[in-house]
Design brief:
- It is built from 18 helices and 4 strands.
- With 454 residues, it is mostly helical.
- The chain is globular.
Length: 454
């Protein structure tokens, strides 16, 4: 049996130099933090830079061989966010005498390895559509797994499972599988969603019997909230599905229906969940509950207020005063020590990834790829919005983590899988096209079909 041929790498100069820049940014941040803490910068910094470039260099080489046409900006931006997250976790470790950063470095290495594996094994994103319904069932099972496989963690939400010495949050991976399923469902049922029903206030509303899919998603979301007592991931999934449905149909009536259902669901959950009631009370007036549930948000607001526009400087603030600052409040730590300018820069880095993902969605030629890329990009955008809204008192806290930056292995691994699929779609979108379908499983948009017929 002949061995498979390894494609020769293609020079991706922009990506390589941006990765070096991301490594330099990480080292500069680390040196600044060390000096801010009163330590001397040592030659170990160069080992950190070398390790950073080595890990992401392997990812770069993989893309150069198996995804030559993929976007060259996404991976360096992800590397920069990941590096800054490691620096802040290390800074919090020094203040709290913990050792989270060592585990996070190992999770980063494992996540990049999974990223490489997905890029090598997934040679065509359209192959996911063949198994979309199976992946959807697996996603639902993963989402429900913590209800039956207890982790032993004393928390207010049942979202973890215990595997040996590790705790895993299967919902992070279930989200990606469910988005694959929903993208294929919307492709298959696209004509059904476009059927017009009643017209009211200038909007074409769908027929009642066509509301089945979105009602089913709404029901699953409410069930997850009720059983797991976890509002954040369900909110992100529902809003993402709603956005994908709007992209599919272009009808604002679906948004009206979706947000109406979400409002009804939020009111219902508020009535039955003491956890949600407490978070809303802390959101409305955190200082009134400073000695209890409002302490975390109050300290975060104090810190960001002290940081102001330019921040206190890395290592010169007190972000450790915010409970669980390394997880769902890590952006508040950056807001304190890098100020509004630094926090805005981080948000812009996420905006670059989201923009590149949406660009791939517009350029790729099959409907499944368009919806999947748009859904993955929307997920990042909505999750970031909810996290920033939570730390800035724009929204109640949901417990969501910041992708690529917060401590934790499940979120990091799932985020790298998401980026791998996005880059695979980007590679397909940028490949030369002769105007003909590239396989029997490809579904061309109606607009594309008309152009081909011309």
């Amino acid at each position: 049996m002949s061995m498979p041929t390894i494609p020769a790498p293609t020079l991706r100069k922009k990506e390589l130099w941006l990765l070096v820049l991301a490594g330099v940014l990480t080292v500069v941040a680390l040196v600044s933090m060390e000096l801010g803490q009163g330590y001397e910068a040592t030659s170990d910094i160069f080992w950190i830079l070398g390790g950073f470039i080595l890990v992401f260099g392997v990812a770069h080489l993989t893309l150069s061989m198996v995804a030559k046409h993929a976007d060259q900006v996404i991976l360096p931006v992800v590397a920069a966010l990941n590096g800054l997250g490691l620096v802040m976790i290390y800074r919090l470790d020094l203040a709290q005498d913990q050792n989270l950063v060592r585990n996070q470095v190992l999770w980063t290495m494992l996540s990049v390895a999974i990223f490489v594996a997905v890029m090598v094994l997934l040679r065509d994103h359209r192959s996911l559509s063949k198994y979309a319904y199976i992946l959807g069932i697996i996603g639902l099972l993963l989402q429900a797994m913590p209800l039956f496989w207890r982790s032993g963690i004393n928390a207010d939400a049942d979202i973890w499972i215990q595997i040996g010495p590790f705790t895993v949050q299967p919902g992070e991976f279930a989200k990606i599988l469910l988005l694959i399923f929903i993208a294929q469902l919307l492709v298959n049922k696209r004509s059904l969603f476009n059927v017009a029903g009643k017209r009211f206030l200038g909007l074409d509303f769908p027929r009642l019997r066509d509301l089945g899919p979105i009602l089913a998603v709404w029901g699953v979301v409410m069930l997850i909230i009720a059983l797991q007592n976890d509002f954040g991931p369900a909110l992100v999934l529902f809003c993402t599905v709603l956005g994908m449905l709007y992209i599919t149909t272009g009808r604002a009536s679906w948004l009206v229906i979706g947000f109406g259902l979400m409002a009804v669901g939020c009111v219902a959950v508020y009535q039955i969940s003491a956890k949600i009631q407490t978070r809303v009370e802390n959101f409305v007036d955190p200082l009134a509950h400073y000695d209890s549930g409002g302490y975390q948000l109050s300290q975060a607001l104090f810190g960001m207020s002290w940081g102001g526009i330019t921040g206190t400087g890395l290592g010169n603030g007190y972000p450790e005063n915010v409970p669980v600052a390394h997880s769902d409040f890590i952006l508040a730590s950056f807001g304190e020590e890098l100020g509004f300018a630094g926090l805005a820069a981080i948000i812009l880095l996420f905006a670059i990834i989201i923009t590149c993902g949406m660009t791939a969605a517009m350029k790729v030629r099959d409907s499944f790829g368009k919806l999947l890329a748009a859904g993955l990009s929307l997920t990042l955008a909505i999750q970031l919005f909810v996290v920033v809204g939570g730390i800035s008192k724009l929204l109640p806290m949901t417990g969501l983590t910041t992708p690529f930056m917060s401590a934790g292995g499940s979120s990091l691994m799932a985020s790298y899988i998401l980026i791998a699929i996005l880059l695979r779609i980007s590679d397909s979108a940028s490949q030369p096209w002769d105007g003909a379908p590239q396989g029997t499983d490809q579904i061309i948009d109606e607009s594309m079909r008309k152009e081909v017929n011309k």
